[in-house]
Amino acid sequence: MSDVFSTLEQQASYGVGRQMGEQLAANPFEGIDISAVQAGLADAFEGKESAVSMEDLQVAFTEISRRLQEAQEAAADAASAEGESFLAENAKRDGVVVTDSGLQYEVLVQGEGEKPTHESTVRTHYHGTFINGDVFDSSVTRGQPAEFPVSGVIAGWTEALQLMPVGTKLKLFVPHHLAYGERGAGASIPPFSTLVFEVELLDII
Fold first, then answer.
1. Looking at 5, 137, 148, 204, which residue is catalytic?
2. Residue-wise DSSP of 15-38
3. Where along the chain do the CATH 3.10.50.40 domains lie?
4. Which of 104, 108, 119 is nearest to 173 (CA)?
5. Is residue 189 annotated as part of the catalytic site, yes or no?
6. What's the CATH number of domain 85-204, 3.90.226.10, 3.30.870.10, 3.30.300.10, 3.10.50.40?
7. Could you give the 3-state DSSP secondary structure of residue 180?
8. What SUPFAM superfamilies has UniProt attached to this entry (predicted)?
9. Whether 105 is catalytic
Protein backbone atom coordinates (compact mmCIF):
# COMPACT_ATOMS: atom_id res chain seq x y z
CA MET A 1 0.00 0.00 0.00
CA SER A 2 1.23 3.51 -0.85
CA ASP A 3 2.80 5.49 2.00
CA VAL A 4 1.52 8.73 0.43
CA PHE A 5 -2.05 7.73 -0.40
CA SER A 6 -3.13 5.27 2.25
CA THR A 7 -6.88 5.00 1.76
CA LEU A 8 -8.75 3.39 -1.12
CA GLU A 9 -10.41 6.73 -1.88
CA GLN A 10 -7.06 8.51 -2.08
CA GLN A 11 -5.61 5.82 -4.28
CA ALA A 12 -8.60 5.87 -6.62
CA SER A 13 -8.43 9.67 -6.72
CA TYR A 14 -4.75 9.51 -7.57
CA GLY A 15 -5.56 6.97 -10.26
CA VAL A 16 -8.05 9.36 -11.86
CA GLY A 17 -5.44 12.11 -11.93
CA ARG A 18 -2.82 9.74 -13.23
CA GLN A 19 -5.04 8.67 -16.12
CA MET A 20 -5.74 12.28 -17.02
CA GLY A 21 -2.02 13.02 -16.88
CA GLU A 22 -1.24 10.11 -19.18
CA GLN A 23 -3.84 11.38 -21.67
CA LEU A 24 -2.27 14.85 -21.57
CA ALA A 25 1.23 13.39 -21.98
CA ALA A 26 0.07 11.45 -25.05
CA ASN A 27 -1.32 14.65 -26.62
CA PRO A 28 0.73 17.52 -25.21
CA PHE A 29 1.27 21.01 -26.56
CA GLU A 30 4.34 23.15 -26.12
CA GLY A 31 4.15 25.21 -22.94
CA ILE A 32 1.46 23.18 -21.18
CA ASP A 33 1.29 24.24 -17.52
CA ILE A 34 0.38 21.40 -15.17
CA SER A 35 -0.25 23.76 -12.24
CA ALA A 36 -2.84 25.57 -14.37
CA VAL A 37 -4.37 22.22 -15.33
CA GLN A 38 -4.63 21.34 -11.65
CA ALA A 39 -6.22 24.72 -10.87
CA GLY A 40 -8.79 24.29 -13.63
CA LEU A 41 -9.61 20.78 -12.43
CA ALA A 42 -10.05 21.95 -8.85
CA ASP A 43 -12.17 24.98 -9.81
CA ALA A 44 -14.45 22.89 -12.00
CA PHE A 45 -14.86 20.21 -9.34
CA GLU A 46 -15.61 22.78 -6.63
CA GLY A 47 -18.07 24.70 -8.86
CA LYS A 48 -16.04 27.92 -8.81
CA GLU A 49 -16.31 30.57 -11.48
CA SER A 50 -13.74 30.14 -14.24
CA ALA A 51 -10.55 32.15 -13.70
CA VAL A 52 -10.36 32.63 -17.47
CA SER A 53 -13.26 34.05 -19.50
CA MET A 54 -14.94 31.79 -22.04
CA GLU A 55 -13.90 34.21 -24.77
CA ASP A 56 -10.24 33.98 -23.76
CA LEU A 57 -10.48 30.20 -23.43
CA GLN A 58 -11.84 29.94 -26.98
CA VAL A 59 -9.07 32.15 -28.33
CA ALA A 60 -6.44 30.07 -26.51
CA PHE A 61 -7.88 26.74 -27.68
CA THR A 62 -8.08 27.97 -31.27
CA GLU A 63 -4.50 29.22 -31.29
CA ILE A 64 -3.08 26.09 -29.65
CA SER A 65 -5.00 23.96 -32.16
CA ARG A 66 -3.54 26.00 -35.02
CA ARG A 67 -0.01 25.59 -33.66
CA LEU A 68 -0.47 21.83 -33.25
CA GLN A 69 -1.76 21.46 -36.80
CA GLU A 70 1.10 23.55 -38.14
CA ALA A 71 3.65 21.42 -36.25
CA GLN A 72 2.04 18.19 -37.47
CA GLU A 73 2.10 19.39 -41.07
CA ALA A 74 5.76 20.37 -40.77
CA ALA A 75 6.63 16.98 -39.28
CA ALA A 76 4.70 15.19 -42.04
CA ASP A 77 6.46 17.20 -44.75
CA ALA A 78 9.83 16.39 -43.20
CA ALA A 79 9.02 12.68 -42.92
CA SER A 80 7.81 12.57 -46.54
CA ALA A 81 10.94 14.31 -47.83
CA GLU A 82 13.22 12.14 -45.71
CA GLY A 83 11.53 8.98 -46.98
CA GLU A 84 11.75 10.07 -50.62
CA SER A 85 15.45 10.87 -50.24
CA PHE A 86 16.13 7.53 -48.56
CA LEU A 87 14.32 5.57 -51.26
CA ALA A 88 16.06 7.46 -54.06
CA GLU A 89 19.47 6.54 -52.66
CA ASN A 90 18.43 3.01 -51.72
CA ALA A 91 17.26 2.31 -55.29
CA LYS A 92 20.85 2.78 -56.49
CA ARG A 93 22.19 -0.12 -54.43
CA ASP A 94 23.06 -3.40 -56.12
CA GLY A 95 20.43 -6.05 -55.54
CA VAL A 96 17.57 -3.65 -54.87
CA VAL A 97 14.55 -4.17 -57.15
CA VAL A 98 12.05 -1.34 -57.67
CA THR A 99 8.54 -2.31 -58.79
CA ASP A 100 6.10 -0.18 -60.80
CA SER A 101 4.27 0.80 -57.60
CA GLY A 102 7.45 2.18 -55.99
CA LEU A 103 7.99 -0.78 -53.65
CA GLN A 104 11.66 -1.68 -53.22
CA TYR A 105 12.99 -5.05 -52.14
CA GLU A 106 16.09 -7.20 -52.02
CA VAL A 107 16.23 -10.97 -51.75
CA LEU A 108 17.90 -12.24 -48.58
CA VAL A 109 16.91 -15.90 -49.01
CA GLN A 110 15.34 -17.36 -52.15
CA GLY A 111 12.73 -20.01 -51.43
CA GLU A 112 11.51 -22.73 -53.77
CA GLY A 113 7.95 -23.28 -52.53
CA GLU A 114 4.55 -22.21 -53.78
CA LYS A 115 3.69 -18.51 -54.12
CA PRO A 116 0.62 -17.18 -52.29
CA THR A 117 -2.17 -15.44 -54.15
CA HIS A 118 -4.23 -12.39 -53.20
CA GLU A 119 -6.77 -14.79 -51.62
CA SER A 120 -4.20 -16.77 -49.57
CA THR A 121 -3.60 -16.70 -45.83
CA VAL A 122 0.05 -16.89 -44.83
CA ARG A 123 2.33 -17.42 -41.86
CA THR A 124 5.34 -15.12 -41.68
CA HIS A 125 8.11 -13.86 -39.47
CA TYR A 126 8.90 -10.17 -39.82
CA HIS A 127 10.96 -7.39 -38.31
CA GLY A 128 9.79 -3.82 -38.92
CA THR A 129 11.84 -0.64 -38.51
CA PHE A 130 11.82 2.99 -39.49
CA ILE A 131 14.53 4.15 -41.89
CA ASN A 132 16.65 5.23 -38.90
CA GLY A 133 16.68 1.64 -37.64
CA ASP A 134 14.28 2.07 -34.72
CA VAL A 135 12.08 -1.02 -34.32
CA PHE A 136 8.32 -0.51 -34.21
CA ASP A 137 7.12 -4.12 -34.49
CA SER A 138 8.71 -7.56 -34.72
CA SER A 139 7.28 -11.06 -34.63
CA VAL A 140 10.90 -12.23 -34.44
CA THR A 141 11.40 -10.41 -31.13
CA ARG A 142 8.12 -11.83 -29.81
CA GLY A 143 9.14 -15.30 -30.98
CA GLN A 144 5.68 -15.86 -32.47
CA PRO A 145 5.02 -15.97 -36.25
CA ALA A 146 2.13 -13.89 -37.55
CA GLU A 147 -0.77 -15.24 -39.62
CA PHE A 148 -2.95 -13.05 -41.82
CA PRO A 149 -4.66 -12.85 -45.23
CA VAL A 150 -2.46 -11.52 -48.03
CA SER A 151 -5.23 -9.01 -48.82
CA GLY A 152 -5.49 -7.85 -45.20
CA VAL A 153 -2.17 -6.05 -44.79
CA ILE A 154 -0.58 -2.86 -46.12
CA ALA A 155 -0.36 -2.60 -49.91
CA GLY A 156 3.42 -3.02 -49.94
CA TRP A 157 3.13 -6.35 -48.15
CA THR A 158 0.24 -7.53 -50.32
CA GLU A 159 2.36 -6.91 -53.40
CA ALA A 160 5.55 -8.42 -51.99
CA LEU A 161 4.00 -11.58 -50.59
CA GLN A 162 2.69 -12.58 -54.01
CA LEU A 163 6.27 -12.42 -55.32
CA MET A 164 7.58 -14.78 -52.62
CA PRO A 165 7.76 -18.56 -52.91
CA VAL A 166 7.48 -20.21 -49.48
CA GLY A 167 10.88 -20.11 -47.79
CA THR A 168 11.78 -16.71 -49.27
CA LYS A 169 13.03 -13.88 -47.09
CA LEU A 170 12.90 -10.34 -48.48
CA LYS A 171 13.94 -6.98 -47.17
CA LEU A 172 11.21 -4.52 -48.09
CA PHE A 173 11.52 -0.76 -48.36
CA VAL A 174 7.95 0.51 -48.33
CA PRO A 175 7.11 4.10 -49.32
CA HIS A 176 4.40 5.75 -47.26
CA HIS A 177 1.72 5.43 -49.95
CA LEU A 178 2.12 1.64 -49.79
CA ALA A 179 2.26 1.61 -45.98
CA TYR A 180 0.13 3.74 -43.60
CA GLY A 181 0.02 6.85 -45.75
CA GLU A 182 -0.85 10.31 -44.54
CA ARG A 183 -2.65 9.05 -41.43
CA GLY A 184 0.01 6.78 -39.95
CA ALA A 185 -0.97 4.05 -37.52
CA GLY A 186 -1.89 5.20 -34.02
CA ALA A 187 0.95 6.44 -31.86
CA SER A 188 3.48 3.92 -33.17
CA ILE A 189 3.81 4.96 -36.83
CA PRO A 190 3.70 8.67 -37.72
CA PRO A 191 2.08 9.93 -40.94
CA PHE A 192 4.12 9.69 -44.17
CA SER A 193 6.53 7.13 -42.71
CA THR A 194 8.70 5.05 -45.05
CA LEU A 195 9.06 1.62 -43.46
CA VAL A 196 11.61 -1.19 -43.69
CA PHE A 197 10.73 -4.85 -43.12
CA GLU A 198 12.54 -8.14 -43.20
CA VAL A 199 9.82 -10.64 -44.11
CA GLU A 200 10.18 -14.42 -44.21
CA LEU A 201 7.32 -16.41 -45.75
CA LEU A 202 7.06 -19.56 -43.62
CA ASP A 203 3.94 -21.17 -45.01
CA ILE A 204 0.67 -20.78 -46.90
CA ILE A 205 -2.11 -21.86 -44.58
1. 137
2. HHHHHHHHHHHHS--TT--HHHHH
3. 85-204
4. 104
5. no
6. 3.10.50.40
7. coil
8. FKBP-like (SSF54534)
9. no
Q: Could you say which of 43, 136, 148, 204 is catalytic? A: 136
Q: Do residues 165 and 111 make contact, with C-beta atoms less than 8 angstroms apart?
A: yes
139, 171 Cβ separation under 8 angstroms = no
Q: What is the pLDDT of residues 82-135, one digit of tens each?
A: 999 999 999 999 999 999 999 999 999 999 999 999 999 999 999 999 999 999
Nearest to 176 by CA among 160, 159, 156: 156
Tell me whether residue 32 is one of the annotated catalytic residues. Answer: no
pTM of the entire predicted model: 0.74
Angle, alpha carbons 78-158-175 (nearest 5°):
15
Annotated catalytic residue, options 86, 105, 173, 180: 180
Q: Is 154 a catalytic residue?
A: yes
Question: Catalytic pick from 64, 131, 154, 204?
Answer: 154
Q: Answer whether 67's CB lies under 8 Å from 134's CB.
A: no
**Residue 180 a catalytic site member:** yes
Helices and strands counted in the chain (H then E): 5, 7
pLDDT in tens, 26-63: 888 999 999 999 999 999 999 999 999 999 999 999 99
